[in-house]
Amino acid sequence: MIIAVASGKGGTGKTLVATSLALSLKDSRKVRLLDCDVEEPNAHIFLRPVITGKEAVCIQVPKVDEKKCTYCGKCAEVCAYNALAVLPDHVLVFPELCHGCGACSYLCPEEAISEQGREMGVVEWGQSDGIEFVQGRLTVGEAMAPPVIRKVKEHAHGDGVFIIDIPPGTSCPVVEAVRDSDFCLLVTEPTPFGLNDLVLAVETIRQLNIPCGVVLNRAGVGDNKVEEYCRKEKIPILLTIPLDTEIARLYSKGITLAEGMPQWRESFGQLFDSIKETVDERNRSLKR
Amino acid sequence: MKEIVVLSGKGGTGKTSIVGSLAALAKDKVLADCDVDAADLHLLLKPSLKEKTEFWSGQTAVIDEDKCNQCGLCQELCRFDAIKDYRVDPVACEGCGFCFHICPVDAIAMEENLSGHWFIADTKYGPLVHARLGIAQENSGKLVAQVRQKARQIAQERNLDYIISDGPPGIGCPVISSLSGANAALLVTEPTLSGIHDLERVLGVCRHFGVTALVCINKYDLNEENTRRIEGYCADRGIGVVARIPFDNAVTEAMVRSKPVVEYSSGRVSQEIEKLWDGISGIRS
Fold first, then answer.
1. Helices B15-25 and B268-281 sit at what angle, rounded to 10 degrees?
2. So what CATH class is B2-46+124-281?
3. What is the ipTM of this complex?
4. Do A252 and B9 touch (CB under 8 A)?
5. B128 min Cα distance to partner chain A (Å)
6. pTM for the full model?
7. Cβ B170–A170 below 8 Å, yes or no?
């Protein structure tokens, strides 16, 4: 089962929830946490994993053999990203614009284009006290997160529970990270910003046809409008975490809720049970 | 004219609350919300819409079932796993057009995407350019570029001194698009290990693109040891720390009332934000 932990608004507590959920389940199940917030991965700060392996993430960018090239211009014509420009006696390649689709090399009539890997980031994996850990890291200065996210998600196969830490927002990195999940937890806070971004996140998750539920963090800080919205939209609030300076202090030191306040483990266990119930029910109804 | 973009790496450190207050403090400026996929600045500035423009960007492949002979070449060649059972998954499709070019029976068409909208609005603090990326759409970087270009044009036409941009979290495409060519980046961080980790990465992006960075530590009293760590880190690298804002629930109370905090409370938070504006408004263009 794959559980995505997303939010729309940043800083609402995605990583806190994802890591605490993983720690609360690890004694009873096989758990793997995948940090897909590859621009700013933070789960490692809380889980302090021992990294045992890594793999570079490369996309295939064109390399033009000018001995074979006739400057016909076909490659530039088919490139949707303007990553190639053909001059009368030279071909310019802009690797940072290339999405690695492979059209130019396949369609070159002279077979003058080969491909070479360009590193955009890295995927690392290891262990953290009973939790299998995988994270992606986009290289600083690189723009495209989705190829790194796709590589991290290659590790979301097999038995057990996969918990994915999703980047904030609602655009392509979020969609790439959430796709194919069985359930999406949306972590929010009861403020106007939290609500505005929750509504956008719900629209995105519904478009992907994934069931969702809300974790309300810092409850008591703002107003009641998130609860009103959830009631109206029939989105269950599965866990409420109060505004508590002790939780904030633990978080600032990189200590999860499940570790710093072990009494929370039971609540996270119940959170998992209600997710599992929804997912099982949905799978049964899809089979019917 | 100076363009100042507010970034953070980590989300939820207070970028938008600070930009809302800078909107109230700065004179002669245009505001730009460059967080196009989860924009919140309009909630504080209560804009009245003047102009709404469609943003068309990128394409999606569509297979004509009647023409398709199910040879499977497109499925085999697509590197984004966007074609299954001779159908295109529009969410996975990157719009590269590879399938369109290689289909032997010309069964594939490329359709333009309506990727979102951008808006010009008036607020009591001055003009605001903002945008909304369509749900699950790509090309947020290009929409950010559009917002900035419009903001720059307004600043030139009206002879305004500042463009103040509310940036997105992270370090990827929309951040790079918000940052490149700006005069300065104000990085809002918090004294948590996550905040520090993410600050270091976004500082790397500023360095990579040659943009001067200034740092503001929000909720500094949450963990003063970490605050000192950030100050030490910045001092070692010659990066100015322009303000230390204490934790105060007035920030959320102001947000609930749709007000910049400097207009809601005259407490220490507001005093620090005033100091912050003094610190950044003087930077060289």
1. 70
2. alpha beta
3. 0.94
4. no
5. 18
6. 0.95
7. no
